[in-house]
Write a structure and sequence with these properties.
Number of helices: 22
Radius of gyration: 37 Å
Strand order of the largest sheet: 6-7-8-3-9-10
Largest sheet: 6 strands, mixed
Length: 613
């Protein structure tokens, strides 16, 4: 229950007034339930001659309020019977019961009505918080996580919370109020019987808790297994070409069937245990009613209590009314264990630490950057795992407007180096500087706002070409988007499509070739018009014709801005102002193309290997 209160404090605080109003309506429901049955007692006493007392109206201050209230109520009923007769009085009391019941069900409805916006709002807030955290976490977080498992947490685990915790909120607001109210009435009617009830209920609760205590652990294991299933699906679809090429369909099917079989066994165990809650609570409730009936009847027969037979009937009605909210509260306890297991998995994302933080007093980014911005690496060392350095002692000054190329073998640290500029990662030692200030001194959003990045694999979204180009620039006009497409050599093939700029790109841009996707991504960078441009092997995966068109687009894009190029095809960077040759995380050579050729070192060897010498 402590976990539940923490959950409510974290997520339900914005909806506290919904809770307050629901509590008021639930209190009203409980009061109307108690008094709707109370209408029957005087009828039973008087109509069936169980009470021959002659009642006289008493002043409200003449004795204890409870005794005066009962006396005056009975006096009023006898007056009505004397005036209109017993049959008409019974009809009046039955009508009063119907009206009280109508008011009770309306109050119960409005209590649920107030909780519904909170329940749905909490789930929506959790989903929004999770998505915001997912897009804000650094790249390093996802190097240790499977995408399918993250999707399982966002969809499956949040759905489990919706089906368990959120769905239980109404019961958690309603049932305790009803239980407390009914127990109070029972104490008033007979404290001896109620003490006996207080002994029975904890025993029943302990039995239920013993049965359900392992539910949370089993639910957590099942949710982890569901995440593994979704990861397998995601990896299978992404690698379908390889699976088919190696005739591995049956192999992947067996893997998937094994995981779903494990999930089925876990789900069977969880649902069987959960389904036991209702019959067990029903059985224990019946035992409790039978025991109270026996004990209460015995003390009435022996004259050991002031309660009479009609009062005992009323007591049993109230006690039986107590059983339902008690059973629901027990069932809520079962359900919450499943929800708390899902919340643990969600918190792995929500409470994940994001080391890429904005500084407390950020430096304002210059708004007058026209011809690029300066970039500098000062004694930079970097490691992904905190052990092996992939960059060592990097020192490099890039003046505004320069084009600098990074070349070298795969794994030499080129892409890692450019990833440090927009703070996809933070350096372990040293400093990366932009415009004379450490990148850590700027707001992350301000820093990345002056940069455009074109990757080796162009990323397009399953949206229109227009929206893909205007991505990140929502205020762009049609003319600006078309001009960016022209600069990127993309305009001709875009307008030749069925719907032009409104053509859907398909999943990850699947409707276009690699060269076309790359030119659309270049158009996106053109539209942003960034002072600093990062090209990470933007042409390495293209055929000769596509490379020519993309290279022309890149040359237009690189004008009047600082450009850092990561390149495997050395023919694309021969005109760079500075070429840095990287090997094992270090810059081993630097200079222009001609200077490096004349040095007869690593760069010349790379050139000769590509038959450019």
């Amino acid at each position: 229950m402590k976990d539940l209160f923490l959950f409510m404090r974290r997520f339900a605080a914005p909806y506290k007034w919904n809770v307050v109003v629901s509590v008021l309506f639930n209190f009203l429901t409980m009061v109307l339930t108690v008094f709707s049955f109370a209408f029957i007692m005087p009828i039973l006493r008087i109509l069936f001659n169980l009470d021959t007392t002659s009642y006289v109206w008493q002043d409200w201050t003449s004795g204890q309020f409870q005794d005066v209230l009962i006396n005056n109520f009975y006096w009023y009923v006898t007056q009505i019977i004397g005036r209109v007769g017993a049959s008409a009085t019974l009809a009046l009391m039955a009508t009063a019961l119907v009206v009280a019941t109508l008011l009770k069900v309306l109050a119960a409805y409005f209590s649920e009505y107030c909780v519904i916006p909170m329940r749905n709002g909490v789930i929506t807030d959790i989903r929004n918080q999770m998505f915001a955290k997912i897009v804000s976490l650094p790249m390093g977080f996802y190097s240790h996580e499977r995408k399918g498992d993250i999707m399982s947490r966002l969809l499956g685990d949040v759905g489990e919370i919706e089906a368990s915790i959120a769905a239980s909120i109404a019961g958690l607001v309603k049932n305790p109020i009803q239980i407390i109210g009914y127990l109070f009435v029972m104490v008033v009617l007979s404290w001896q019987l109620t003490v006996f009830v207080f002994i029975l209920l904890p025993i029943a609760g302990w039995i239920m808790g013993t049965v359900g205590k392992k539910l949370k652990a089993a639910s957590l294991e099942a949710q982890n297994k569901l995440g593994s299933i979704l990861s397998t699906v995601e990896e299978t679809i992404g690698g379908l070409r390889v699976i088919k090429a190696f005739n591995a369909e049956q192999q992947m099917t067996k893997v998937f069937e094994g995981e779903t079989g494990d999930y089925k066994r876990l789900s069977n165990a969880i649902q069987r245990r959960w389904s036991l809650a209702h019959p067990m609570s029903e059985f224990l409730g019946t035992i409790a009613v039978a025991v109270v009936l026996w004990f209460g009847g015995a003390i009435i027969i022996n004259g050991e209590t002031s309660i009479d037979a009609p009062g005992f009937i009323y007591y049993m009605v109230i006690f039986y009314s107590l059983i339902n909210p008690a059973k629901e509260l027990t069932r809520v306890g079962y359900t919450l264990r499943k929800g708390m297991a899902a919340l643990e998995r969600i918190d792995k994302i929500l409470k994940a630490d994001n080391p890429i933080k904005d500084p407390e007093k950020p430096v304002a980014m210059s708004t007058t950057l026209k011809r690029g911005g300066s970039v500098e690496f000062k004694d930079v060392n970097f490691s992904y795992d905190g052990e092996r350095y992939v960059l060592q002692d990097i020192n490099l000054k890039i003046k505004a407007g320069m084009t600098v190329a990074l070349v070298g073998q795969s794994g030499s640290g080129k892409s890692t180096m450019v990833d440090l500029i927009p703070r996809f990662w933070d350096v372990a030692h040293g400093e990366v500087m932009v415009e004379g200030n450490s990148v850590g001194d700027y707001k992350v959003a301000d820093l990345r706002s002056i940069m455009g990045i074109v990757n080796q694999e162009p990323i397009l979204f399953n949206d229109t070409i227009y929206n893909n180009i205007a991505f990140g620039c929502p205020d762009a006009t049609q003319e600006q988007v078309e001009e960016a497409a022209k600069i990127a050599n993309a305009y001709e093939f875009i307008i030749s499509t069925e719907k032009g700029f409104q053509t859907l790109a398909g999943d990850r841009g699947s409707r276009f070739s690699g060269g076309q996707r790359q030119r659309i991504s270049i158009a996106r960078a053109v539209l942003k018009n960034p002072p600093i441009l990062i090209l990470d092997e933007a042409t390495s995966a293209l055929d000769t014709e596509s490379e020519r068109l993309v290279q022309e687009a890149l040359e237009r894009l690189m004008k009047n801005r600082t450009t850092i190029v990561v390149a495997h095809r050395l023919s694309t960077i021969t005109n760079a102002d500075l070429i840095c040759v990287m090997q094992d995380g270090k810059i081993v050579e630097r200079g222009t193309h001609k200077e490096l050729i004349s040095q007869n070192g690593v760069y010349r060897h790379l050139v000769e290997m590509q038959s450019l010498g």
